[in-house]
Design goal:
Largest sheet: 5 strands, antiparallel
Order of helices and strands: EEEEEEEEEE
Number of helices: 0
Strand order of the largest sheet: 1-2-9-4-7
Helix content: under 10%
Structural class: mainly beta
Radius of gyration: 19 Å
Strand content: 25-35%
């Protein structure tokens, strides 16, 4: 018996995503061909797999962020963007709060949500291995770098194992 395909009718207009021939289809970004022209902080490499830079996406940034061993970012925030992260490999710390006195630690397999406009410092806790995150933001990969703070102001940073 053939399925009732009338149940699979489009309930909205996605024609804005049509390619040159008028077909709306998934857009694949092949590994190694991700866009690197995205917001950056020194020591963190952000590559975009899905974004306005190279897909029809207009309200989503999804990419991979790599941090060198021992890396810590400058204080920054992501403007109006909501940020979701997943630790693919390595160990991370995110400093936040007044004078960056608070932090959360993350390990491989952990997820994190960073609210819009929240100043924070991202760190790779491991002095010898890289850290890799999968990150998504809406509406775009906004990165607003702020003035640097000395390591001494980040509680438990300099004496980490």
């Amino acid at each position: 018996m053939e399925p009732d395909f009338s149940k699979y009718v489009l309930e909205g207009d996605n024609s804005v995503y049509a390619n040159a021939s008028g077909l709306v289809e998934p857009v694949v970004t092949r590994g190694g061909l991700e866009a690197g022209a995205t917001g950056q902080s020194a020591g963190a490499t952000r590559v975009s797999g899905v974004s306005i830079q190279h897909t029809p996406a207009t309200r989503l940034w999804f990419g991979k962020v790599s941090n060198e061993s021992g890396y810590r970012s400058v204080p920054h925030h992501h403007g109006e963007a909501e940020t979701g992260g997943y630790v693919l490999s390595g160990r991370a710390r995110i400093y936040f709060g007044e004078r960056f006195q608070d932090y959360v630690d993350l390990a491989e397999g952990d997820w994190v949500f960073v609210p819009p406009f929240m100043p924070h410092v991202e760190c790779n806790l491991d002095r010898n291995k890289p850290l890799t995150w999968m990150t998504t933001r809406t509406p775009e990969n906004i990165v607003v770098n702020l003035e640097q703070v000395a390591d001494a102001y980040l509680r438990d940073w300099t004496d980490r194992p």
